[in-house]
Amino acid sequence: METQKFHTSTNPSHFLHSLHTSTRSIFALLSSFLLLVLAYNGAAVFCLHVPFLAQISPGKAAGESRKSPSSSTPKTQLPTSQKSQNFLPDRVAGKPIKWSASSTKLSTQMYAIREDNPIVRKPLDISAFFSRKRRRKRKPAFAILRSDPRAALFSTRVKDFLSENRCKIRFFMTWISSVGSFGDRELFAVQSLFNSHPNGCLIIVSNSMDSRRGMAVLRPFLEKGFHVAAISPDFNYLFQHTAAEAWFDRLWRGNVRPGEVSLGQNLSNLLRLALLYKFGGVYIDTDVIVLKSLGQLRNAIGAQTIDLETGKWSRLNNAVMVFDKGHPLVLKFIDEFALTFNGNKWGYNGPYLVSRVVSRMRGELNPGFDFSVLHPMAFYPVDWSRIHGLFRGPRNSTHSKWLQGKLHHIRTQSYAVHLWNRQSKKLRIEEGSIISHIMSDCCVLCNSSASNL
Asked: How many angstroms separate the Cα of 354 from the Cα of each of 286, 300, 325?
């Protein structure tokens, strides 16, 4: 029997069968273990942890240690991350709020516990946060809105300047670019203005020109005894008590999209209206050459084009405007700007704006709205699409006669000539051209290079 037992236990077939059975058992165990691991990992990967608002009893804010109601230990707050601190606004609906540490982010809303009433969990108004974020993304566009310490003195400086010089007529220009870009063309526009209005006053509303470099540019006029000053604008003061005030506040908070058109250009459109409404006088662009005195004009705006069949204007322009202080039409222009602002259409908040407003007033009774729409020859004797013709010298005898006739017509019928800078800034003034003759008529310093105008 012992021999038989030994023989049986050492039988190769029995040994292999036992080994195979053991291997299968081990493999089954390993497979089960691996399946358990995979199941656990799968649950960890695909499981969505949905936050919920815990029930909090009165007197216990989230983050407090669990203590008996009789405990007199003051409430403590858990430390919050710097990101959370930056994310939560300091005020909700204009009221200061103290946050507990356990604010909860749920979907796209923020919830926090009011320490003064820990039961109440209210969704936070995070518009202020996103407004700051939008402003940071559009940093170049908002550079023009940076506060300038000199702006706080704007109203005082303007009033002092106007009273000290006893101005017979006041002019306003705006300049939103650098000092270096205030070139020969802009300087000649100033020359032509003082040539026709030697006793007038000109205020250039500009941050860049209100500087040592800017005053150096204007010094030749001051040395000649002309009254000119560059003053940084105070937007809050200028827009106060008009619809522009709320619009500008929304812009500053990032709730107005500046659009594709230069924000500076659109602010210039609004700024000129605010200046006229606040002080009254004449607004004039820096690419307008003044030919004769505007002193006889009052509450006037120029037509850019007319309908040849009806003889009625079809579009106005805001490059030159003459209005009394507080004129109701100017206020309507400001209202229109604030209500319909569109930063993606060139001219929509400028020439098209004044055209829309005045067009709606046609055929209506508007007491107190006395104003005149002047013929295009007043300020726009040549349309933008044909401005190049004023820069060309005579080509032949026929062309020379046309130039002489056109020049005579402008000299006798026009108060000013708009050069349409966008279309003409790269044009060279040729000898014998209409512009070259106008320059010789209107200069007061008479040292500008015609080829650089």
From this structure: 19, 12, 17
Give pTM, 2 decimals: 0.69
Q: Hey, what amino acid is at 212?
A: R
**Does an H or E element contain 403, and which?**
helix 397-413
CATH 3.90.550 domain extents, the chain? 151-378
Per-residue pLDDT tens digits for 395-419: 999 999 999 999 999 999 999 999 9
* The token pair that represents 318 in the structure block: 């805001």
Dihedral angle over CA of 214, 220, 222, 225, nearest 10:
-160
User: What pLDDT sits at residue 168?
Assistant: 85
Q: Say which amino acid occupies 131.
A: S
Four-way CATH pick for 151-378: 3.90.70, 3.90.550, 3.30.2350, 1.10.10: 3.90.550
- Cα–Cα nearest to 379, from 287, 279, 270, 267: 287
In angstroms, rounded to a whole number, what is the distance separating the alpha carbons of residues 112 and 102? Answer: 7
State CA 49 to chain mean position distance.
42
CA separation, residue 183 to residues 178, 180, 189, 198, 214 (Å): 10, 7, 10, 21, 11
**If we measure between CA atoms, which residue out of 384, 185, 346, 204 comes closest to residue 263?**
346
Are 184 and 192 a contacting pair, CB within 8 Å? no
pLDDT score at 25: 61
Q: How many CB atoms lie within 10 A of CB 232?
A: 20
Buried b (16+ CB within 10 A) or exposed e, 401-413: eebeeebeebeee
Contacts of 227 (CB under 8 A, 6+ apart): 161, 165, 167, 199, 200, 201, 202
Burial profile 241-264: b = 16 or more Cβ within 10 angstroms, e = fewer = ebbbbebbeebeebebebbebbbb
Residue 267 one-letter amino acid: L
